[in-house]
Amino acid sequence: MSLNSSSNQRRDILILLRLVENRLCCDCDAPLSDIVFGSLTFGCWLCSNCSEVHKLLFNNKAVVKSSLDNWSDDEVFLEL
Question: Over the stretch 17-43, which tens digit does the pLDDT of each residue have?
Fold first, then answer.
């Protein structure tokens, strides 16, 4: 992955998180902070508490990534 590609994905994630419908955790409706988690399994945004619950409930098979992680173009597309 090139540096430019990584910065494009971060930009795309920030754009997605600015949308009104993405400002709350999809599980508990808590306002999302600066660091959020995307559930690639369910295609939604989670707060840190709910991301941990997803990992525990789904026996670490749930794919959850931090907004600070490197994302592929396909992973960003799942969050649209």
Answer: 888 889 999 999 999 988 899 998 888
Task: Pull the structure tokens for residue 35.
Answer: 């660091």
79 and 43 in contact (C-beta within 8 Å)? yes
pLDDT the model gives residue 59:
80
Q: Provide the phi-psi class of 29: left if phi over 0, else alpha when psi is between -120 and 50, else beta.
A: left
CA 19 to CA 14: how far, in whole Å?
9
The type of residue at 59 is N
pTM above 0.70, yes or no: yes
Q: Is the dihedral of CA 61, 66, 78, 42 positive or negative?
A: positive
Sorted by where each starts, the structural domains of the chain and their CATH numbers stand as 3-78 (1.10.220.150)
